[in-house]
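EI: anyone free to look at a 324-residue chain?
SC: sure, send it
EI:
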Amino acid sequence: MSNRPVRWGFLSTAAIAASALVPAVRASRNGVLHSVASRDAAKAREFAATHGFARSHDSYEALLADPEVEAVYIPLPNSMHAPWSLKAADAGKAVLCEKPLAVDAAEARRVTAYFQERGILLGEAFMFRYHPLTRKALALLREGRIGTLQAVRSSFFAVEGKAATDIRFSAELAGGALRDLGCYCAAIIRMAAGEEPSEVRGVVQPMAGGVDARASGALKFPSGVVADFACGFGTPFSASYEFIGSTGRLLVDQGAMVAWPGTAFPIKLWTKEGCEEITTPPANHYQLMVEDFGEALRGGRALEFPADGAAANLEVLDRVRAGG
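SC: here you go
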C-alpha cells in the first residue's frame, strides 16, 4: 500500500467543508488539501488561500479534470449529490459525498451501482459512525449489557434558519428535516437493530416551500424490535438516542449524532445493578472518516461503512415521507 497522502479536491466552498472537512483532512495521517472549486473564481481563490489548498478552480468541471486530484469531497445541496458524484466517477475520481447520498433510495441505488461497476470508491459522509461514542454504545448493546434489544428511540432537532437563504428549506434542492436530520435517526436505529425494517410508518408536517418541517417515523423489524424517531426544525438543538433492552436501557442524550470533535459525551447505562455513566474519549470523527477513506483508497479495500447502505437508509425516509 502506498504511503503517499491522498490528494483531496473539494467540490464547493460550503460551510461544512470549511468547518469540518478542512480540519479533518489537515489533521489526517494520509490526506492533503489539494484543490477546491467554486463557480465564483474569487471565492475559490480566497478559500484556497485561507485553508491551505494547493490550487483553486473556477468550475466543478475543472476540478474533476485536474489529474492530480484523487478523491473528491462533495458538500453540495442534496439535489446535486448524485449528479456530481456520477460526473466524478466518469472522471475516475473516488468520492466522499455528504449525506444523504441521493434524494431517494432509487437514485442512491443507481449511484452505488455506477461506482461498483467501475470499481471506484464511494463513501457517504455519516461521520458519527466512526466516533468512540457510537462504537461504545453499540458495543455495550452487542455485549448484552441491556439484555435483548426490544426498542430504539431517536430524535434530532435543530434551530431554524432563514428560509430565504437556507438550502434546507428548498424543495428544488431536496431540503427538509428528514434528509437533513432524520437520516441520522434512521441510521442509528438501523445500526442498533442490525437489520432492515419490515414495516415503516410516518407522519410529516410540511412547511411553506414544500419541504418537511417536522417528521416522525415508526419502524418494526423482522426480529420484533420496534423503533421510533422524530426530527425537525424550529426548536433548540437536541440530538439523542436510547436503546431499550429486556434487562436494561442505554441513553445518549447529548449531541448523540453530532458529537462535536474535542468534546467528551456520556452514555447512561441502566442495568439491574443501577445506573452507570460511561464517558467516551473526545475524537474528531470527521478525521477518522477521512483516514478510513484514504486507507481504503490506497489499500484497495472496502470502507468500514460501505456506501451501499445509503439506499437502505433513504428507503426508510422515503417510506416515512409517504406515510408508510
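EI: The first helix runs from residue 15 to 27.
SC: 👍
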